[in-house]
Amino acid sequence: MRATHQRGFTLLEIMIAMTIGLFLAGALVTVVQTNKTVFLNQNQLEQMQDGQRMAMTLMADVIQSAGTTVTSIDGISLTGDGNDNLNIGEIHVSTN
Asked: Who's near 59: CB < 8 A, 6+ residues apart?
């Protein structure tokens, strides 16, 4: 018998390569979904912070229009319930 040089891949090699490829594709999909979720959460947080900033500006304007001078607004306790609802705990306003 004459030994011939084998060319190409065996069925087992192709199956192993496909399995590894499926694991890599699954990992890629997971990373993309996680990044999308983080982006959406970050966007919601940014909108909530913008709303808080606007509320603080409006509060400072109202306090100033009442005849006092606002020097700082600090010590704010803010909590969210995950449904775009913001609960304001304590607000400490320093005036002159």
From this structure: 73, 91, 93
**Percent of the chain whose pLDDT exceeds 70:** 66
Closest residue by Cα to residue 48 from 70, 73, 81 = 81
Residue with structure tokens 């020097």? 71
Domain positions in the chain are 12-95
CA distance 76 to 60: 13
By residue count, the chain amounts to 96
What does the alpha-carbon distance between residue 64 and residue 95 come to, in Å, rounded to a whole number? 9
Helix ranges (DSSP H) in the chain: 11-65
Q: How confident is the model at residue 89 (pLDDT cuts 50, 70, 90)?
A: low
Q: What is the value of pTM for the model shown? A: 0.50
Tell which residue, 27, 29, 25, 5, has the closest CA to residue 17.
Answer: 25
